[in-house]
Design a protein that fits this description.
Layout: H1 3-17, H2 20-28, H3 32-51, H4 53-90
Length: 98
């Protein structure tokens, strides 16, 4: 799981836990403590997401850049291995044996 996916899932779970649906369920049970707690959590989660949207976009960009670098490094490593095999089979290099 990437850093961005972790952040996105954490926010999704928080929004779900402090959702209006959960507040309504607590209201129907007349559980005023949880109504207050979940209402406060709902407000905080909504504010955090709004104020920190740049952070979410940053983690998304970092994750994308990291994947690009990872793919480039993997391709480079595969290219080096292939070039080494070609040189080895053509006799350009010989493995040292002890």
């Amino acid at each position: 799981m990437s850093f961005y996916e972790l952040q996105a899932e954490t926010m999704r779970a928080t929004r779900e836990f402090y959702s209006l649906r959960q507040i309504a369920k607590s209201s129907l049970r007349l559980d005023l403590f949880n109504v207050g707690l979940k209402t406060y959590g709902y407000t905080l989660a909504k504010q955090w997401i709004k104020k920190n949207q740049y952070f979410i976009e940053y983690t998304k960009a970092v994750t994308k850049a990291g994947r690009t670098i990872e793919l480039a490094a993997k391709k480079t490593a595969e290219d080096i291995k292939e070039k080494f095999r070609q040189m080895e089979t053509s006799g350009d290099i010989r493995l040292l044996k002890n």
